[in-house]
Amino acid sequence: MWKQAIEDAVQKTRANIERFGSQFPHVSENGHYLLNDNDEWTDGFWSGILWLCYEYTGDEVFKAAAERTVDSFRKRMDAKVKLDHHDIGFLYSLSSKAQWIIERDEKAKELTLQAADVLLARWRPKGQYIQAWGPEGDPQNGGRIIIDCMLNLPLLYWAYEQTGDAKYKEVAILHADKSRRFLVRGDDSSYHTFYFDPETGGAIRGGTHQGYQDGSTWTRGQAWGIYGFALSYHYTKNPLYLETSKRLARFFIERLPEDNVVYWDFDVPVNADTKRDSSGSAIAAAGILELLTHLEANDPDRAFLEDGLQRSMKGLVEGYATIGQPDAEGLLEHGSYSVRVDLSPDDYMIWGDYYYLEALVRLEKGIKGYWYER
User: Fold this and answer.
1) Which of 152, 254, 280, 353 could make a disulfide contact with 219, Cβ separation 3.0–4.6 Å?
2) Is 197 a catalytic residue?
3) C-alpha closest to that of 314 among 239, 353, 259
4) How far is the C-alpha of 288 from the C-alpha of 169, rounded, in Å?
């Protein structure tokens, strides 16, 4: 099943190279990806898909296309085009860091270290967190963290490994600890976002930006947490991060619907019109795959997590993948960007496509993503 799904994804990606040209896919509208000139937070995912296809096939077509994206990211860094947010890890881990991991290209390594410095500049020492959005002192976002940032922290951990400069790892750990304390609730659910006093770091309140309501559990946020804390465990071996990833994963799996692909929020009232988020299920599956690599064979949670992984991936492949639709641009249907504001609530999501393919190639060939050195 996995091999057929990968071959389908590879064929579509090959066609998309010509369709997209030098532009980058974001989300879809009327069945077609909306393209941009590398100025979205999501543009690293296209690069990551190309690198995964190259590693799986060895086809130079994918390598050449992936290298062109890295050239684009170099230009984006030089011009500082919309790098004023925390999603630098999504952008550069899957583009230039991927090139470094695969090809050992020194220029790609240098570019990735530049990106780590851009992310590090969002550290707010007074509050002791990485600010998600907006400039320092922003009245709305100056004290805000969001759970998505757990997938950006690997860029800082990696920079520490490459340079030996402890500041990168120290900031990543402090932010992960704060995220664990304030974003993860006692019942193993999660807040999407949390607000602090930017001067003192004092806790104000939890909330949401894309979930159903402030106290609900946005499914994609829960998935970010599963994968992000597993990766923080990989880099630090702090058992609290492993425990947190397991807790978040169990909560996620226990609430899978009948077809095993999640709705956009675990607390939203479900009816015939309730939107799914296939991208949330794809991220969670990739995260559980990482989590499983850190568990002992006799871990009491292993069988439950493995079953949840298989159910999730089977649900995606059989019910949401565009297999059998040769002209489809996306790999997964029924992803949701932001249902709250009716922004691509039922469309292709390039990040969903990336994590879906990452999980598939890891299951089939053991090819990991680009979050750490292999």
Assistant:
1) 280
2) no
3) 259
4) 23
* CA atoms of 75 and 79, how far apart (whole Å): 6
At residue 196, φ and ψ (nearest 5 deg) are: -125, 160
Q: What is the DSSP letter of 345?
A: S
From the list 78, 84, 138, 148, the catalytic residue is 148
- Cβ–Cβ contacts within 10 Å for residue 230, how many? 28
Give the residue from 119, 109, 104, 127 showing the smallest Cα distance to 41. Answer: 119
The C-alpha torsion from 306 through 312 and 318 to 323, rounded to 10°, is -100
Q: What distances in angstroms separate CA 347 from CA 32, 266, 339, 342, one per listed residue?
A: 9, 19, 11, 11
Q: Is 148 annotated as a binding residue?
A: yes
Question: Is 302 known as a binding-site position?
Answer: no
Annotated catalytic residue, options 8, 37, 43, 87? 87
Query: Would you say 338 is a known binding-site residue?
Result: yes
0.85 exceeded by pTM: yes
Residue 87 known to be catalytic: yes
Total residue count of the chain as it appears in this document: 374
Query: Is 362 labeled as ligand-binding?
Result: no
Q: In this structure, which topology does domain 2-365 adopt according to CATH?
A: Glycosyltransferase (1.50.10)
Q: Any known ligand binding at 87?
A: yes
Would the annotation count 188 as a binding residue?
A: no
Task: Give me the tens of pLDDT residue by residue for the chain, a chain 374 residues long.
Answer: 999 999 999 999 999 999 999 999 999 999 999 999 999 999 999 999 999 999 999 999 999 999 999 999 999 999 999 999 999 999 999 999 999 999 999 999 999 999 999 999 999 999 999 999 999 999 999 999 999 999 999 999 999 999 999 999 999 999 999 999 999 999 999 999 999 999 999 999 999 999 999 999 999 999 999 999 999 999 999 999 999 999 999 999 999 999 999 999 999 999 999 999 999 999 999 999 999 999 999 999 999 999 999 999 999 999 999 999 999 999 999 999 999 999 999 999 999 999 999 999 999 999 999 999 99
